[in-house]
């Protein structure tokens, strides 16, 4: 695994990303709470693929959030990122806000996406289903709502073993602030209108304990993406990659290895 930076165009801020593994290229677009380093789920996925895991602009060490005004800007950012890396077509696994952007990328630039895996996707709102607002939580326990078991936040986000827990707490706040620029107050992004344009074989994955994107949203996504399939991961909340990393990697990896 390498932690790298790349500049997309002269004068632009660098993109910070992880790269590891070998095989067909996979672009991993992270959830609203950011990357927790080279996560176990990514590490397992990298046993079969070459994985590129960038920080979204404004998350972690990456800058450039002030230059983005919409989800479309994020999509174009990742088109530029693929161009800068010389990657023509990739598998894409998107998680949470990353799933929304992955879906938009597949709808707007179907030529760049081979197969698509969307985990706990944010972007559709239904008043009959609703969902917890991740930006309306107690600031001292901001991301507990993202876990099926809130106690897991302590070890999986605040105490990752690499930096002081207080630094992780501050970073947690910064990452949620970045996410709020695109998802607050109600995360209805209009993506449902563009989902039928997706041509990439797609799997949608919900989590049984997800309070932000309840599993009842998954059939809505499935109904609007032609030919898509769906699964539910048990004993996991919105951050299924942290609570069930092996299951996350197995579902995505098996999907990407399936022939078109």
TrEMBL record:
Residues 25-244 form the AB hydrolase-1 domain. PANTHER family: AB HYDROLASE SUPERFAMILY PROTEIN YCLE (PTHR43798:SF31), MONOACYLGLYCEROL LIPASE (PTHR43798). Transmembrane segments: none annotated. The lineage of its organism: Bacteria, Bacillati, Chloroflexota, Tepidiformia, Tepidiformales. It comes from Tepidiforma flava. SUPFAM superfamilies: alpha/beta-Hydrolases. This is Alpha/beta hydrolase. The keyword Hydrolase applies. InterPro entries: AB_hydrolase_1 (IPR000073), AB_hydrolase_fold (IPR029058), AB_hydrolase_sf (IPR050266). Keywords: Hydrolase. One of its GO terms (molecular function) is hydrolase activity.
